[in-house]
Amino acid sequence: MPSAAYLLSRLLQIVPTFLLVMVFIFLFVRLLPGDPAIAMAEAKASDQQLAEIRERMGLNEPLAVQFGYFVKNTVTGDLGRSILMKRPVAEVILERLPVTVYLSLYAVALSVLVAAPLALFAATRANGPADIAIRGLFQVGLSMPVFYIGLVLLTVLGAKLRLFPVGGYGRSFIDNLYHLALPALSIALYTSAILMRNLRASLVEVLDSEFVQFARAKGLPRRIVLTRHVLRNALVSAVTLLGLSIGNLMSGTLVTETVFAVPGVGRLMLEAIFARDYPLIQGLTLTFAVIVSLTFLATDIVQSWLDPRLRQA
Amino acid sequence: MLDRHIDAAARPAVLEIRNLTTSFGPQERPLVAVDGLSLSLKAGEIHGLVGESGSGKSITLRSILGLIQPRGRVGGEILWKGRNLAALSERELGAIRGKEIAMIFQEPMTSLNPLLPVGLQITENLAAHTGLARAEREREAVALLDRVGIPGARARLADFPHEFSGGMRQRVMIAIALASRPQLLLADEPTTALDVTIQDQILRLLQSLAAEFGMSVILVTHDMGVVAACCDRVSVMYGGRLCESGPTADVIAAPRHPYTRGLLHSIPRGVAPRTPLYSIPGVPPGLGERPPGCAFAPRCPNALDVCRDEKPVPSVSAGGRGLACHNPEPGPTEETR
């Protein structure tokens, strides 16, 4: 297991990342054209009212002071009020976040379940007909945009065959396995294609390595050679890829959740953008950044657990 | 020295390779890596297998254990304890690999699994081939590491390969290979990647372990110096075929194949500083471009017309010396005759 010192140092590295993200979000919002006070105020507000709003929002303070307030408020969980929902941003996000997290994890699990066995199957038959067929099929999956795959699944499995609901969100964990099957599948088809290719390539490389030959020369059973020596080594790079793909996956939920009418933060982001709900956009961007950072942290921890050479912090 | 050879000659052969042919690539136009190699190994013998890169030495070792992948084809007979290894299934080979015949590799840096502690890499061998309980396996692993000269063996079981130096990793690899007390060790250039001082230590270790366990060794190397230092017999390979074989001292004293002569001549001995080193002119032929006659003919100073057209047939003469050459150097027997 990775040492406590390693975990602590890796955790501390997140702090500057978050600060940088906050600087970007803060500056980005202030770079947008238009006066936030006008956006906040009712139509036909007087100059007097606008000035009051500016004063109340601290918009007259120097930028550095404003940033200080922004950091302080963010850390204490105050992300402002959503213009669209007329409720605190943090409350709205927390309500919708579990849906997206569920959908993402579901998609990742499906991708791994599809990609890992096929990659192993293809890699042990490298350049044979089965390998070429599998790679060709996934190449097609890779070339199609997620929303298109989503629409095809929706039409065929949802509307025509009526195997799965065409949208919405269920009530319980089990119920959602069924309700979110189509959106998860449409994300997973794309992710698993990338994962399959990467995993297959590293499996081929590991299968050819000297330590696997040595393991075979020891007379170990094939099952142990494949799991203990081959798969584990190939996983190190696959885990990296999976971690990096979370960023893609999060932006993918914007489209997928909209296509399948899933009430997650992806769809919320799209709604917020269309409504120019700046506090909500700001809060959601921060949320996505936090999720991606935490995923990278988890990736690093899993990797250092897999590979002892990475444990020296 | 002489006594030992007579002694060895009287012992029965444990491994008998007959006409081993390993090829790759398309059936109709195969790339032949090992071409009709025959070799016999006696119990307790250390046999050097010498040749340049690409001469087929490593493929020979891998063919013995059936490690050739993915599409290598192994023909001929590899007789081990009355069984033909070339005809065994993967399952049957699994019981022999690591248990009766073990192998160590050239690169200690890449031959150990970087993600597993060395203790596990030793004990998994014992788990596969013995009925020892976990605690016994660990005790045995400590004893093995201790035997190959790893200081503080018990404390190092949980260490990972990257925490060992190159020479120490090679010792760990030897400990792993010897875990189940094999009767034959296939050593594929075990010292090539190591410093000269470490090379010597590892060779001595192999020698003493072979004597202690009564184990035969096939030592693949490209270094005639290594052969001279520790091998009872030597076989010289070129272009996938055997050129010459015999007791090491005899072959070194009177090489008969022009290639063996060239190899021995390439070792710098007592030359003045800044003297250009000798090397055999030309390069070995690639797998797909072997000449129809003797593989060495294009580079051979003694080559005749027949050498270019006809493969030389290996013959065995008195004193256990084998030779495949149309126009050999005069041997000691001819001179005395």
From TrEMBL, chain A:
Keywords: Cell membrane, Membrane, Transmembrane, Transmembrane helix, Transport. It is a multi-pass membrane protein. The chain crosses the membrane at residues 12-32, 103-124, 136-157, 177-196, 230-250, 280-302. Signal peptide: none annotated. GO terms for biological process: transmembrane transport. Residues 97-303 form the ABC transmembrane type-1 domain. One of its GO terms (cellular component) is plasma membrane. Pfam families: BPD_transp_1, BPD_transp_1_N. Coiled coil: none annotated. It comes from the Bacteria. It is found in: Cell membrane. Belongs to the binding-protein-dependent transport system permease family. This is Peptide/nickel transport system permease protein. It comes from Gellertiella hungarica.
From TrEMBL, chain B:
Its main location: membrane. The keyword Nucleotide-binding applies. It comes from the Bacteria. Keywords: ATP-binding, Cell membrane, Membrane, Nucleotide-binding, Transport. GO terms for molecular function: ATP binding; ATP hydrolysis activity. InterPro entries: AAA+_ATPase, ABC_Ni/Peptide_Import, ABC_transporter-like_ATP-bd, ABC_transporter-like_CS, Oligopep_ABC_C, P-loop_NTPase. It is a peripheral membrane protein. Residues 15-264 form the ABC transporter domain. It is found in: Cell inner membrane. The keyword Zinc-finger does not apply. One of its GO terms (cellular component) is plasma membrane. GO terms for biological process: peptide transport; transmembrane transport. Residues 313-337 are annotated as: Disordered. Pfam families: ABC_tran, oligo_HPY. SUPFAM superfamilies: P-loop containing nucleoside triphosphate hydrolases. Belongs to the ABC transporter superfamily. This is Oligopeptide transport system ATP-binding protein.
